[in-house]
């Protein structure tokens, strides 16, 4: 087939969520519940950081960035998912699909950088507490956050442009519940080897480097905890690090499984869709609880937002 003279599709058809027959309504109800929990939990963190001056610290600044990312990440595709199901029309326009794909990965890549910055903040706070205020100034934190967002934007820009310019002539059915790179490339014409190689390179550089940085930071934190004189402080610090590492393992594990592969042609999209649940719906809901569940400053701020007298939480 001559791809240069083909008529480009104007819209794609999204197959939808992985489901058993007759379970669509139950699965959609679960998705709606997770989405509302994501909006409420992450939105509450953003509101608290803005309203409570006690939370205007580097840790909460980066955490509010992560909450904004989680809201944006899910909002990129869940409203469209519900519109398609309610209207019984599973189509999405070509440029809407390309925009969804790019914005989704913009939030996703930025999340890795922000998680790395959170680990850096915790490393300096625990391993170098006397120098923490000198090092982690508001100006530096702002520069780091801007660098994370700009780095994400430019790291996926060229790949996004190349995917948009591919010919789509043979099929317009995307076997996924949103416009993801793998399913889109499966129906693309032309030579996609360069795009696959570039995507694999970006995944290795961004994902693996941020994962290595995060793990090394927590390794130094654990070594510092071992030298703490108080067993109680050791236990609480260990449990906090363990919860953070659980969030890191869930996110990085699912992303590596889905995207850390040299080719998409022979990959199983049914398995990919199931694993995508973790980093698209479950992780954004878990992050606010994992990063704040043992944080007394956040607990006190929640009571202030709810206009109640804060209880006396034991200091860590």
UniProtKB/TrEMBL annotation:
Residues 41-291 form the G-protein coupled receptors family 1 profile domain. The chain crosses the membrane at residues 26-50, 62-82, 102-120, 132-158, 200-226, 238-260. One of its GO terms (cellular component) is plasma membrane. Its main location: membrane. Keywords: Cell membrane, G-protein coupled receptor, Glycoprotein, Membrane, Olfaction, Receptor, Sensory transduction, Transducer, Transmembrane, Transmembrane helix. GO terms for molecular function: G protein-coupled receptor activity; olfactory receptor activity. It is a multi-pass membrane protein. This is Olfactory receptor. It comes from Python bivittatus.
């Amino acid at each position: 087939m001559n791809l240069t003279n083909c008529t480009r599709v104007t819209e794609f058809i999204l197959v939808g969520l992985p489901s058993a027959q007759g379970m669509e309504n139950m699965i959609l109800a679960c998705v709606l519940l997770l989405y509302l929990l994501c909006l409420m939990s992450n939105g509450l963190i953003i509101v608290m950081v803005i309203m409570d001056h006690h939370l205007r610290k580097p840790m909460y600044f980066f955490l509010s960035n992560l909450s904004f990312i989680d809201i944006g990440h899910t909002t990129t595709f869940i409203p469209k998912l519900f519109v398609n199901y309610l209207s019984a029309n599973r189509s999405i326009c070509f440029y809407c699909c390309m925009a969804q794909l790019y914005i989704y990965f913009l939030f996703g890549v930025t999340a890795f950088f922000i998680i790395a910055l959170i680990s850096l903040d915790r490393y300096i706070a625990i391993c170098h507490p006397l120098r923490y205020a000198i090092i982690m100034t508001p100006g530096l934190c702002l520069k780091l956050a801007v660098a994370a967002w700009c780095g994400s934007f430019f790291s996926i820009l060229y790949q996004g442009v190349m995917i948009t310019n591919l010919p789509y002539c043979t099929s317009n059915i995307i076997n996924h519940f949103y416009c993801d790179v793998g399913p889109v490339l499966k129906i693309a014409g032309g030579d996609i080897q360069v795009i696959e190689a570039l995507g694999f390179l970006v995944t290795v550089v961004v994902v693996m480097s941020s994962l290595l940085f995060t793990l090394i930071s927590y390794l130094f934190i654990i070594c510092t905890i071992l030298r703490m004189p108080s067993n109680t402080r050791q236990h609480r610090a260990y449990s906090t690090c363990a919860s953070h590492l659980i969030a890191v393992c869930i996110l990085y594990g699912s992303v590596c499984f889905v995207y850390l592969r040299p080719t998409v042609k022979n990959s199983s999209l049914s398995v990919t869709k199931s694993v995508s649940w973790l980093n698209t719906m479950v992780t954004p809901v878990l992050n606010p609880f994992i990063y704040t569940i043992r944080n007394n400053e956040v607990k006190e701020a929640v009571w202030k937002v709810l206009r109640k007298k804060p209880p006396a939480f034991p200091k860590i």
